[in-house]
Automatic annotation (TrEMBL), chain A:
One of its GO terms (cellular component) is nucleus. Residues 6-55 form the IBH1-like N-terminal domain. The keyword Protease does not apply. Its main location: nucleus. It comes from the Eukaryota. Pfam families: IBH1_N. This is IBH1-like N-terminal domain-containing protein. It comes from Zingiber officinale. Belongs to the bHLH protein family. Keywords: Nucleus, Transcription, Transcription regulation. InterPro entries: bHLH_AtIBH1-like (IPR044549), HLH_DNA-bd_sf (IPR036638), IBH1-like (IPR044660), IBH1_N (IPR059002). Transmembrane segments: none annotated. One of its GO terms (biological process) is regulation of DNA-templated transcription. One of its GO terms (molecular function) is protein dimerization activity.
UniProtKB/TrEMBL annotation, chain B:
This is BHLH domain-containing protein. Residues 5-59 form the BHLH domain. The keyword Transcription regulation applies. CDD domains: bHLH_AtPRE_like (cd11442). The keyword Zinc does not apply. Pfam families: bHLH_ILI. GO terms for biological process: regulation of DNA-templated transcription; regulation of growth. InterPro entries: bHLH_dom, PRE. GO terms for molecular function: protein dimerization activity. Keywords: Growth regulation, Transcription, Transcription regulation.
Amino acid sequence: MIMAFHFLGALSHIQKTTTHSTFVFRCHRIRCAAYTSMALSTGAHSAWSRALLRQKPRRGSLRKRTVILQRPRKRAVRLEEDCQDGADVLRRLVPGCDGMDSAELLDETADYIRCLEEQVSLMRSIVNVISLNFNPKS
Amino acid sequence: MSSRRNRARQSGSSRITDEQINDLVSKLQSVLPEAGIRRNDRASAAKVLQETCNYIRSLHREVDDLSERLSKLLEESSSDQAAIIRSLLM
């Protein structure tokens, strides 16, 4: 719901301000809006959402309002050798996960995927709504 | 003999992390689409990671593709569409 609110607001703003811009530029703005609304709806409790929000300068930047208690130091979970490559690729794909230990990485990944799916589903619905209401000029 | 001792020590320390890893891997697997990976196969942790990477990449591509479609729609649509977007917000 929050994601939809942010994304639709951004789309509306983009439409107003990019009437004379190139297709590529508008595309880029929409893409950025998608990731930002994902991160905003999640808030600051995920490393990936904080990383995405740090990339985008915003007025009144989102700070961690609550103090996250230091988790007791667990022995870092080591994956087997053949999993390390996969884990490294994952660290590059999921924002903000560089140098994260494997346990946290898998946690963040699951969260990131769920959010991505929501965003994709939201964008599909919007495309459908606009397409249904759109009458071609010719 | 010493190798046996080493192996015993290694399996002792990794038994805790194996369980953690299995839990996390199955949690990850639950968010993946049905990919026909057998759940309790220990060796498939690497496969789950690989599937996860592929899935994330495909989701990124979908976002890109949908952004392009939205961009095209916003460009082609009349100003009525702005009203539609605003009405979706209410």
